[in-house]
Predict the structure.
Amino acid sequence: MALDGGVGIGNGITKRPSQSCSVAVEKAAHRADEETEEEDEGKPWVARKWITSLAVCLAALPLLVIMVSRRDWPFPLPSGWTPAMTARTLLGDLIIPGFDEQSCISRYQSTPYRKNLARSPSAHLVKRLREQEALQRRCGPGTEAYRRAAERLDSRRNGTPTTKGDDTCKYVVLVPYRGLGNRILAMASAFLYAMLTDRVLLVDSGASIPGLFCEPFPETSWLLPLDFPLRDLESLTGEVPESYRNLVEDSRAVSELPYVFVDLDHACTYHDKLFYCDDHREFLHRAPWLVMRTDGYFVPALFLNPAYQEELDRLFPRKDAVFYLLGRYLFHPTNRVWGLITRFYDSYLKNSDERLGIQVRVFDGDTPFKHVLDQILACTSKEHLLPEVVAQEPVRPASARSKAVLMTGLSSWYFENIRGRYWQSATATGEVVSVHQPSHEEHQLTGEATHDMKALAEMYLLSMTDAIVTSGWSTFGYVGHGLGGLTPWIMFKPENLTTPNPPCQRAASMEPCLHGPPFYDCKARQGADTGKLVPHVQHCEDMSWGLKLVHPEY
């Protein structure tokens, strides 16, 4: 089909496009001829008016083509996506228009690769995101407010007297570390804390973060400037004089310090963890700079703090979707990483009837273990995630379903064994099972740029599956199922090199686990089992002392 004038339009059009532009063109040409004489008589504005109308219609024609034709959309799109959809409608207002789409294609293209939003953001969360964006623009790097705040920090650190600033801009500087999964969970946690306490979030990015993620905030950066006055942030510990631990133990005044350092390592001390009970309005609000070092997901601990409970209830009516929503807002892969993701997905996963993700993480060394392979097979069989195989070739049904299995892990041995199983034997159900693994690095290379790019690509690919099996204790797995809004089957960590029985369990929610939780009741001000204080914070399936968010069914 083609429009008058020879403009080609894609298949599937049921209504002829409006002819208003065509009519305007004809009228403009006719009127321009008639008005030629009047132009010569000193009235050129008439012809110019119609020429302007013609130009507007011609400029609008490509947009008309895009609106009626999926084929002519400038980006390749998965099935079911229409050009009229925007990031605004696809992400429930999590993302606003105004970003340069070409500089970060994934921000607008990632949604159709997954199912519909597993949880929709609350109106209050959307409102607070817009407020945080405005704060980041007003006080972020490159602004006069940031320059003044950094100067005062530098002066106070060196013991130089400073004039009192208004401190209207306050900051939390995040120092994430360990593996990429740890760092992603830390960034999501620190962002929520920044929103709760009206602070600007700045991330000490290290070597790989800028090459992994697009900037999440419009017209500003969340990356800590290279000329930040404090150096060697990764070497800070709870022993430094500025630590929150020392503030609590020595009852020091916040106003005496140039900054406050919070050590939230998974193995931090009792006094460090009292941070989770801090009422920011009464204590830490006096500190314009807060430096936070953490390697995990501490959001469940924030839900135990009475000072934040009312606001968190408004932000997240569904308690099991915090990381999912924050992750969909914050973490958009750069174009290079997005290319790794889409090329693999389109080549190996796209055309299958069903996609299963299996994430393998072994903590007992890099050598493959048979008991881990047995655990994977036992879990997928017990939960009917993969079909059994048979020795005798059955008659294959004419309409056999296909299932693509995406495996991720440092070793290729598990992938090769499971792929061989479904190549050498037919399935009892007649399903066609294909098994794929994007990479096998053999060893974890934390902070190495190419290694981290592959790791992020695989986390995103896991999030695009329909069902997922993950390894207990693995932050890589937490991110994979969390970004996809998938409630995983979690394989228990093996003990004594034996396959656990049962091999896995369906999780209570898609939320990650906090590995180093507090054991202190903020209200009662005494030690407590923090997995039993509120119904929406419970112990994790894979780590009995850990904490995770669930949505209680009252």
